[in-house]
Amino acid sequence: MEKEIGNRNGEAISYGNLGALFQSIGQYDEARKYQEKALAIKKEIGNRNGEAISYGNLGALFQSIGQYDKARKYQEKALAMKKEIGDRRGEATSYGDLGTLFQSLGQYDRAQDCKEKALAMQKEIDDRKGEAISYGNLGALFQSIGQYDKARKYQEKALAMKKEIGNRNGEATSYGHLGVMFQSIGQYDEARKYHEKALDIQIEIGDRNGEATNYGNLATLFKSLGQYDNARGYQEKALAITIEIGDRNGEANSYGNLGTLIQSLGQYDKAREYQGKALAIQREIGDRRGEARSYGNLGVLFKSLGQYIQAREYLEKALAITIEIGDRNGEATSYGNLGVLFQSLGQYHKARAYQEKALAMKIEIGDRNGEATDYGNLGALFQGLGQYDKAREYQEKALAIRIEIGDRDGEATGYGYLGALFQILGQCDKAREYQEKALAFHIEIGDKRGEATSYENLGALFQSLGQYDRAQEYQEKALAMKKEIGDRNGEAISYGNLGTLFQSIGQYDEARKYQEKAFDIQIEIGDRSGEATSYGNLGTLFQSFGQYDKARKYKEKALALQIEIGDRSGEVTSYQGLGTLFQLLGQYDEAKVYMELALGMNNKIGDKNGVATSYGDLAGLFLSLGKFARADDYLKMAMAIRVGIGNRRGEAADYGHLGIISLRRGLYDKAQECQEKALAIHIEIGDRQGEIVDYLNLGCLSVLEVSQSHLEEASSYLCQSIEKFDTLRGSLKDSDQFQISLLEEHGAFPYQLLSRLLSSTRKSQEALYVEELRRARGLADLMTARYSVQEQISGNPQSWHGIQEIIRREVDCACLYISVGKNDVRFWILKGMGDVHFTEKTVSLEANVVTGLVPDLDEFFKESFRSLAILPEQNCEDRSLDDIELMPHHYDNRTVLRDHDAEDFKTNLHLCYKIIFAPVASLLKQPEIIIVPDSCMYQVPFAALADEGGKYLSETCRIRMVPSLTTLKCVQNSPPDYHSQTGALIVGDPEVGAVIYKERRTTMTPLLCARKEAEMIGRLLGVTPLIGDSATKHAVLQAINSVSLIHIAAHGDAERGEIALSPEHPTLLPPFPREEDYLLTMADISKTRLRAKLVVLSCCHSARGQIRTEGVIGIARAFLGSGARSVLAARWALDDTATEQFMTCFYKHLFRGESACESLHMARNWMRNNGYDKVSQWAPFMLMGDNVTFDFATWPVPTPP
């Protein structure tokens, strides 16, 4: 219309408006075309003011697309023209626009100068609207350079003025700016409040573009808080609006933000797709600054995936564009990103050069927040290089700036970094202080992701201190939080951390489960670097339990992947790991090759700590080869570096190794001096595990010295080692599994050594107390907690008294206490009158027929009766979970069954009698023997041991087992009213049906005799048994904690004796119940508080479990630990028919008022004399714990048949 009526000025204004419209929706070419048409007309008609406005509009347009030189040229033309024509308002606007341009370029001093000129001019001419805008612009400037107090003051002034003049759109903008500012300093509640106010106004006034911006701001806020679902919802709303209104620039930004968000969740393919979309739009609309940002985002994404070549390519593209367009802040950011990348690649010199460029630039442009980030990055770099003093200096500079500018989130991060550094230096108290500060900050500001990181860091710290229960607690908190916020990559890291934790305490099954979970996630999300790490972790795990072929395969996969993706640091780790593996295999030349490759690479990348590690590895290798001088040289070089960089834990390790070298060279004084130095450092840094090992080494050293005068010193050191171990163990009382693993990993040897040392010096009673300290300690803790009684014995020798009184309280009993060595057995016989007799026997076994090797005695006891796990196939059913129909979903399979009454089995029974009973038979004349076996002996069927005439031990006496005398004392001291006197839970033949067992479909066959057995006992006791589909796991757990007698006849697991019950809904069709739906586990029992006097586990393998120093870790132990006074359990697989007969006889005697031990004795005799004369039929059961009796006369039961 303006053209039609010939209004040239109006036509120019319309062109300008169209240009502004196209710019707002990201169509920059169209915008430029229309703005240039407007400029041409204004020039033609001599409209100087309009011409100046067009120059300003074109300047803003070129700034939007990152063409800063052109933007500046046009803005300066606009300013000059406005000055010339005396347009003070326009002059102020131009100063403001130039200020924003200089801010984009990172020229903050010039930006501030221009913005302050604009503000002064607007105040002078009383331009309230312009004044408010200038306050807002200055606020944004101060925020970008980390001066948050000033930023807040100016933004609040802008807000107040916009409210005063009724500028609703401007008011919303100010609320948004304040929200971003509060978010920057970690005040997330305030940030959310302001963003929501901004959003409400923009929705109210219909500002769709502003609405999209605020949805994006809220998304960024929720991402910072780790609330990824909320963040994604808001970001997708922002994207939808930008697409709807045709805002191409906003659309690109939303795709980029979504890509960064999705990357945080470990969804890398989707993240790449979104970043690619953002980049495509930015290239299409000519947005050079946005293009650089997208290249940077893609570079960071590829780095996360371990695709380092592509990462470098994209980060260098981002850098090139920022240099080209003069974006100083963006250039500094690109240098920082490249520095982090090169650090990941182990190229530390390049990394340092780039980080220092980034830092110099941030300091030059006055960006305090960026300066803090770069100090932190350099701190992390120096830490990686083992330059700990510099690392601390830079991290403390970063922290100081963050405190100064009020950045709460950054402050928390800084405390976390310093905590990790102090941990490496062995300053564990400081490490904990800083990590707990970081955690408190993250919780206070609501940062879920940061909170998870702090839990992870604290978990690692407690693991390094040997506080494994707390380590597990914190790592599990981290994992739970990462799952909650949907952080898949973080979830994988947490699984890996838990795997490493369980590996460190010897729980290899758990370790493998967690490492494989980590690996699966990393494959799923495409994290190549994480995949390599998982291969390496799995390799180390397989190495730990001797599967060296698998270990090598996984470590080589890790190495190949690290070489492929260019991960130099990971490559070094793999070389070191392979070197250690080949050394274990005795392939010393191969080991040396890999260790020297690691050393060379560490030297090349300048990693001092890594060089020290490589020297230490080579020292260990030469020590294995007996080349002590070379080993000594390498250790001294390692120690020199560690002392120089302040690595106290590494220094202690080097002293320990030097002590070993000195010992091997016969330099006992030197060896002792080195061990004492190691001990002093471990005490100083609070490493209790290290202390235990040092005291043990000092004890061993004293034992090895020739002079008898050193035995006293050796005993002292070993006692100190045990006391330290006891203190550490005491801190784990709430975690049974960690106590068990800790004893296995660090505690067994000092107890064994001290016990032998004491018995060799005729201190047999003291030796017995030391033996007792390593027997069933975890179980004793569980029992004392259940009964609320005090455990008297500890690592302090002052508590070693009163053990004889335990047997005094038993009637007509003697106790046989056994300790097994590699080729000898030690015996203590405790009598009811308080006498303690000690003797020992050296044993010479014959060579194994197959291997030709002479087995150690402990291995002989462990292996001799393994064949009892499976019964020969008969017409009746076996109650073993491992002999049922077990198959994959499409495959049939049955276990090969063996005869375990074979001749070699009988030979072993006789040999065990000769070893265990013959030497002490004359001292064991009482009618009942309580046996405290060593852990390797739990599968020995003591009742079936036969003398030369073929007479079984159980024919001459009653036999009962106790895990330790302390556990027996716990039962003796339990409160009189603790155990229930009446009531029974009888379970038989649960209907299990088809279930998933050990990841395969399993159909469990009915146990008809188990059903009859339960019905018989039910009739006898007047109790309705749980049979078939009524014997559910839920029903059993509901009834189990109040009754006096528990009897379960069901299928049992061969590994730990865990019991198959009925799921809530048995089925033969998928989906099949999982183990947690039907399997009664150790964990289930451990959570209950039992009141039972007797638990009868008429299930296969119910006495089995992992054989550890603690004892047998299985379902029977779980029942004792949860409060059962006595447990009758089976060592091996049960014949269903024979077991029914056995139990009929057992309960017949028990019902008459005879004790459990006497009833067991009578049942065995009856079985042998009534056609069940195979050992597998009459001898599977063992009684553990107290010898209980029942007064069934008080029960409402019918007269027995």
TrEMBL record:
GO CC annotation terms, alphabetical: cell cortex
Q: Which GO terms describe its molecular function?
A: G-protein alpha-subunit binding; GDP-dissociation inhibitor activity
Where, in residue numbers, are the TPR repeats? 12-45, 52-85, 92-125, 132-165, 172-205, 252-285, 292-325, 332-365, 372-405, 452-485, 492-525, 532-565
Per UniProt, which keywords does this protein have? Cytoplasm, Repeat, TPR repeat
Q: Which InterPro entries match?
A: CHAT_dom, GPSM, TPR-like_helical_dom_sf, TPR_rpt
- UniProt-listed Pfam families: CHAT, TPR_12
| Locations listed in the record | Cytoplasm
What sequence ranges are listed for the domain CHAT? Answer: 913-1186
For biological process, the GO terms are: establishment of mitotic spindle orientation
- Give the chief site where it resides: cytoplasm
UniProt KW Repeat keyword: yes
Q: Which named protein is this? A: Tetratricopeptide repeat protein 28
Protein source organism: Stylophora pistillata (Smooth cauliflower coral)
Its organism's taxonomic lineage begins at: Eukaryota, Metazoa, Cnidaria, Anthozoa, Hexacorallia
